[in-house]
Amino acid sequence: MQRRLRRYVPGSEGLEGRRLLSSAQLVATPPAEVASVTSTGEGDPAATSARQASTATVAQQRQGPATRPLTQAQEQAREEMIATRLQRIDRLPAFLQLLDPGRPLPEEAVAVLQQELRGFVSRLRPPAGPIAEGFVDLLRDAISEASVKPETVAGLNAGTAALLGSAGASEQSIDRITDAMTALARTAAGSRQPIVVLTNDYALVLQTALGVGRPITRLDLLATQLPTATLNPQTAGLGSPTGGQAIGR
Questions:
Q1: What is the chain's alpha carbon radius of gyration, rounded to the nearest angstrom?
Q2: What does pTM read for this prediction?
Q3: Which ranges are annotated Low complexity under compositional bias (predicted)?
Q4: According to a count of CB atoms within 10 Å of the terminal CB, is the N or C end of the chain lower?
């Protein structure tokens, strides 16, 4: 029986993090400067001056063109995107209440969360992949518990600090958010499904933080000006630790 050979097909995981050699910009020294450098001696002041001019030219080319100012349409699109993100933050208490309509939310803690999230709008960066995956693993481990334990909350707070720190949040903001999440965890402990509510509290707040904090790029603004196709309406649900979109994507 003849054995079939299997083809190896490389996966695409991590491809976005690699640096493609074909995209690297090559900067050539102008021919006039090359002739000037090669025709003079090592200790000749003219040679030194030519080398300095060549170095300055290369450095200027590597810096690239200055950032172009936004057009009026792009500036308006940016303001609309920021308004949409602020509206998402305003709706956070309603989303938290949906997880358990019967529990009283700690108003002061929720207000602190909203204040810090507003400061994140378009100012964070995507967190490191391993740290984001580690936080999701913490949620999955926590959901197997029978009740809310202090060590579980401490572990989720540590994961929250690592995730937000990787995304560029300040230590002061992280401390205020973890303190507010601890107060929110106390209300989850009295729910009918305390662990489900607890893990979804953390997932919701962190997804909101990374979502509103994502930088607004020029490409995002250009995309808002393109004609949109008609899509079938779909109901968007909240993410769950047991499934759905992973945090950080």
A1: 26
A2: 0.65
A3: 46-63
A4: N
Does residue 117 belong to any structural domain of this protein?
yes
Answer whether residue 184 is part of any domain: yes
DSSP output for 57-109: HHHHHHH-SPPPPPPHHHHHHHHHHHHHHHHHHHTHHHHHHHH-TTSPP-HHH
Handedness of CA 17, 22, 25, 26 (dihedral sign): positive
List, for residues 147-194, the tens digit of each pLDDT value. 999 999 999 999 999 999 999 999 999 999 999 999 999 999 999 999
Q: Which domain holds residue 122?
A: 72-223
Q: Do residues 163 and 181 lie in contact, with contact meaning Cβ atoms separated by under 8 Å?
A: no
Tell me if 149 is assigned to some domain. yes
Q: Is residue 238 part of a domain?
A: no
How is residue 249 written in tokens?
């994507």
- Please state, in angstroms and rounded to a whole number, the distance separating the CA atoms of residues 87 and 214: 15
The first and second tokens of residue 74, run together, are 């792009």
Domain count along the chain = 1
β-bridge partners, 37: none
Burial class (CB in 10 A: 0-12, 13-18, 19+), 165: middle
Q: For the chain, where are the E strands, in sequence order?
A: none
